[in-house]
């Protein structure tokens, strides 16, 4: 009697979806279908040729990674020697296309549907039913991996007095970092950049090449080092906006910034799974799947829905080394779907733990501890014998994690100097 292979839907063909496909193809006999709404694989790293379409991505023209190529690469698949230590966005996209062509494309058990938007995912009995824009028929799966990323719906604080009035008066002067593409539109302006993450610091530096002045609004001023860039001034968080009073931004320490032309919110993103038809309240904390949320609930190890372990999520974690984390999660998901790992049912206290937008944040060294936890689970259930295994977070890998942070700090100093050199020449920011 012929055994019918189990089917897995992977929603998203970015780094997490591709790493899941590689792990499944190597370590299971499952049949896979990958869905992605974009015309090319790569997920968030895909950067359209059309400038208007670029506004819908989290990428921008002169973006390079804040992680070295040595630590961010997939296991056994290094970046090319010609790629510099901190790759550009286009180099990362080329790397992901090469990864796809090497491990996923033309594989008999994998089908990839691009330009295809998943519209509804619904559990029916023991199966998952999936509807998408490419067909009127329903496709049926045994398992689902949601790998659609979390760089789609911008998060902007809503509790700042005067924000609504400013937005009504001059909406074009309020931007999220997702809308940022290059520094040229900010030439001669006084700009406030909000957010002390890597994108906030990078965008503030790039804008400084052409702006009259940039105020970098951060949580801790002491950590915002702009000594070598006199155009950028670190300031405290915003307490109020007064668009009708000389376009004034009032800070929490009482300082007033007048005649502000633009505010750029580099304040992160929300999680959005608009197609989820089952378990909305349990996972999203809302009965309306189209509502973006700050975190997901009920997930064991931030990966598998404990009430129904046929549903998994990839790379929800933030502030991690994404590619190696994604493949560690993928190998564990494969074990769970094969029945080699029992997922415990989470009690109410575990479900509520870590409420808030920082729940999924694993700032170093928490990311190292997290990966080692996943590795321990894999090792305990036969992972050492799997054909494909993720990168191991041993002492050498942990040391590389710390070293790349220090190396990026030195790299940032060079980028600041480049911004000032370009400014002296009257040029907008661009990478060498």
Automatic annotation (TrEMBL):
Keyword match Oxidoreductase: yes
The keyword Zinc-finger belongs to this UniProt entry's keyword annotation: no
Native organism: Lachancea meyersii CBS 8951
Please state what the protein is called.
Answer: LAME_0G06920g1_1
Q: Which UniProt keywords apply?
A: FAD, Flavoprotein, NADP, Oxidoreductase
Top-level taxon: Eukaryota
Name the coiled-coil region(s). none
Q: Which GO terms describe its molecular function?
A: flavin adenine dinucleotide binding; N,N-dimethylaniline monooxygenase activity; NADP binding
Q: Which family does it belong to?
A: Belongs to the FMO family.
Query: What Pfam family is a match for this entry?
Result: FMO-like
């Amino acid at each position: 009697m012929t055994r019918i292979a189990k089917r897995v839907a992977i929603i998203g063909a970015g780094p997490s979806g591709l790493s899941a496909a590689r792990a499944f193809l190597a370590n299971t006999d499952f049949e896979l279908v990958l869905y992605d709404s974009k015309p090319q694989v790569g997920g968030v790293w895909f950067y359209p040729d059309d400038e208007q379409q670029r506004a819908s991505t989290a990428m921008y023209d002169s973006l390079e990674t804040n992680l070295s190529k040595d630590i961010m690469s997939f296991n056994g698949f290094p970046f090319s020697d010609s790629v510099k230590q901190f790759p550009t966005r286009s180099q990362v996209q080329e790397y992901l296309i090469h990864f796809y062509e090497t491990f996923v494309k033309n594989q008999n058990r994998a089908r990839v549907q691009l330009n295809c938007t998943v519209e509804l995912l619904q559990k029916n009995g023991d199966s998952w039913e999936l509807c998408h824009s490419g067909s009127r028929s329903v496709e049926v799966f045994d398992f689902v991996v949601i790998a659609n990323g979390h760089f789609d719906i911008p998060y902007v604080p809503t509790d700042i007095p005067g924000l609504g009035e400013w937005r009504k008066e001059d909406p074009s002067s309020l931007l999220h970092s997702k809308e940022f593409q290059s520094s040229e539109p900010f030439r001669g302006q006084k700009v406030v950049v909000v957010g002390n993450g890597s994108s906030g610091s990078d965008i503030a530096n790039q804008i400084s090449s052409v702006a009259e002045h940039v105020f970098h609004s951060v949580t801790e001023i002491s950590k915002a080092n702009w000594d070598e860039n006199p155009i950028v001034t670190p300031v405290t968080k915003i307490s109020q906006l007064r668009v009708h009073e000389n376009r004034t931004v009032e800070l929490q320490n009482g300082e007033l910034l007048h005649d502000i032309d633009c505010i750029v919110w580099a304040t992160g993103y929300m999680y959005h799974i608009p197609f989820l038809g089952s378990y909305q309240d349990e996972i999203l904390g809302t009965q309306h799947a189209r509502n973006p949320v700050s975190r997901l609930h009920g997930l064991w190890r931030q990966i598998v829905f404990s009430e129904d372990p046929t549903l998994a999520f990839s790379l929800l974690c933030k502030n991690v080394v994404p590619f190696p984390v994604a493949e560690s999660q993928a190998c564990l998901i494969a074990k769970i779907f094969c029945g080699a790992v029992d997922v415990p049912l989470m009690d109410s206290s575990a479900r509520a733990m870590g409420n808030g937008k920082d729940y999924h944040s694993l700032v170093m060294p928490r990311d190292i501890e997290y990966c080692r936890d996943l590795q321990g689970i894999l090792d305990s259930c036969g992972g050492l014998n799997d054909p494909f295994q993720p990168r191991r977070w041993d002492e050498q890998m942990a040391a590389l994690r710390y070293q790349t942070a220090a190396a990026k700090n030195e790299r940032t100093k060079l980028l600041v100097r480049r911004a000032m050199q370009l400014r002296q020449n009257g040029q907008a920011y661009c990478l060498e």
